[in-house]
Structures are given as structure tokens and as C-alpha cells.
Amino acid sequence: MVTRDQSNYSARNLWSGFLFGLGLVAFIDETIFHQLLHWHHFYDKSTTDIGLVSDGLFHAFSWLATIGGLFMFADLRRRNGLWLTRWWGGVLTGAGIFQLYDGTIQHKVMGIHQIRYVDNVIVYDIVWNVTALIMIIAGSILLFRTKRKR
Fold first, then answer.
1. Helix ranges, the chain (H)
2. In whole angstroms, how far apart are CA 56 and each of 48, 89, 96, 107?
3. What per-residue confidence (pLDDT) applies to 150?
4. Within 13 A of 19's CA, how many CA atoms are on the CB side?
5. DSSP assigned state of 115
6. What does pTM read for this prediction?
7. How many domains does the chain have?
8. Whole domain around residue 55: which residue ranges?
């Protein structure tokens, strides 16, 4: 059952989840693929030092988005307006949109880095972008279901 408070904060639930999802996926990308696996830097068209600086800026952005989403989440809880289903829809949508943007615009259009520098990168691209599409579809389903209940 959707309460009046949840319905009044519908957009805020969406944006809190969206920011958190975007920041979380960016944070995971930075931590796993940039730092632990050393597959790429945020910006690979220059020196390693520039790549590390770009990773630091990217990490700061992801952390700010994650924390911003969590501050909004805490405010929603305080106001008794948290609508978890809608919030999770925002999380999945934000995460998927970021990942799809990264995989298409940054990797292919701008060419600032690849997922991994290997001969058969298309396999990585397909997995990366299909995973993004699955998150977007799942998040959109949750958002559509909660929109009808408003």
C-alpha cells in the first residue's frame, strides 16, 4: 500500500535512487576495473599520470553522487516518504544508464578508454552493454509499476 507521503515524494524517491545507482556503478567501475584489475583509466589517451588524475576525479564524482543519493534517502526516511520499490527502480535505472553511457559514448564515440585492451574487445562490450540494458529494463518496470500506483 502506497502512503500519501510516499506518493508526495515520488520524484524524490526516483532521483535519490537514480543518484545512488549512478554513483554506485561508477564507484564499482572505478574500484574494480581501474584500481584492482588495471584494465583502463578514465582517460587513457595520455600518460599514466594523467590517467591516475582522471581516475581520482572520476572517483570523487562517483562518491559525491553516491553520498548525495544517500542523503536524499535519509531525508525521505525522516519524512516518512521512502518508497523502496520506486527507489530501487531509480537505482537500477541510474546504474544502467550510467553503464550504457560509459559503454557506448565514452568507449566507442569518444574513445577515451576501452573496457579492456584485448584483441576481442567486442565480447566485453556486449556483456557490458547488455548488463546495462537489463538494469535499465528492470528499473523501468519498477518505475512503471510505481507510477500507476500514485
1. 4-8, 10-28, 48-78, 84-101, 121-148
2. 12, 29, 22, 19
3. 54
4. 17
5. S
6. 0.90
7. 1
8. 4-148
